[in-house]
Amino acid sequence: MPRRVLVTRAAHQAGKLSEALRAAGFEPVEVPLLEMRPPADPAPLDVALRFIDSYDWLILTSANTVKAIAELATKSGLSLNASPQLKVACVGEATATAARKAGLDVSVVPEKFVAESLVESLAGHVNGKRILYAKAELARDVIPDALRAAGATVDVVDAYRNVMPEGSAKLLRAALEQGIDAATFTSSSSVTHLAEAARAAGLAFPFSGVKAISIGPITSATLRESGWEPAAEANPSDIPGLVAALLCSAEN
């Protein structure tokens, strides 16, 4: 029987990872722990988009952020391309692809798909510039402070929030009863939401005997804070890298 791997991505995003896992010989077990909702206060993002022409850079760190911004712009009758001087930076190629599909011209995609690499790519180009940084509510990130240290003025706004879908605890309990060999984590939110679902299901967290596979350094740090040492970390920090890290951990 293929090794069973927990996939905690949002339902609308799980397919790509699950397909890659099946191709690598694993059995994905989907337990969606993240569901996108508008931020608790959508006004700051709405105002920022209405004055998008006052910014020099727009920084996007996930495809979900792109989706949230594009949907709000459409709802409000706004164009994200109204500002000719606006440059767009994306933390990874998946985010850049989503941005291009939304009609944005992407200027910067770092070689490594992590926050630190994006900061390095932008550091010499942002002194005296105004930056709009849109993120998930409660997301932990090093980007705004690092860019301010490089001389930029950074406005941080919440584009969306992650909530736990109804029924996640029940699905998680059933998945663990059937056995899980590894769990994949694509964000810090996936770690905290899994811990929350485990508590709701009356399960000990971290899960004994289950390998944690992290997509990158920030997610790994959140896992360690939760008492779960990652068995492997993706490099590069994308879906193929995550599957490769899982394959490596399975061989050890």
Q: If you consult CATH, what is the topology of the largest domain? A: Rossmann fold
Largest sheet: 6 strands, mixed
| CATH class type of the largest domain | Alpha Beta
Q: Main sheet: which strands, in order across? A: 3-8-7-4-5-6
Number of DSSP E strands: 11
* SSE pattern: EHEEHEHEHEHEHEHEHEHEH
Distance between the termini: 18 Å
Total domain units: 2
Low-confidence stretches: none
- Tell me the helix content: 40-55%
Q: Based on CA inertia axes, which overall geometry fits? A: globular
Mean pLDDT: 89
Q: Which CATH architecture of the largest domain?
A: 3-Layer(aba) Sandwich
Strand content: 15-25%
User: Please, how many helices?
Assistant: 10
Backbone structural class? alpha/beta
The radius of gyration is: 19 Å
SSE blueprint and pairings:
Blueprint (H helix, E strand, L loop, with lengths): L3 E4 L6 H10 L3 E4 L4 E3 L5 H8 L6 E4 L2 H14 L10 E4 L2 H9 L4 E3 L6 H8 L7 E7 L6 H7 L3 E11 L4 H11 L3 E4 L2 H14 L9 E4 L2 H9 L6 E2 L5 H13 L1
Parallel strand pairs: 1-2, 1-9, 4-5, 4-7, 5-6, 7-8, 9-10, 10-11
Antiparallel strand pairs: 3-8
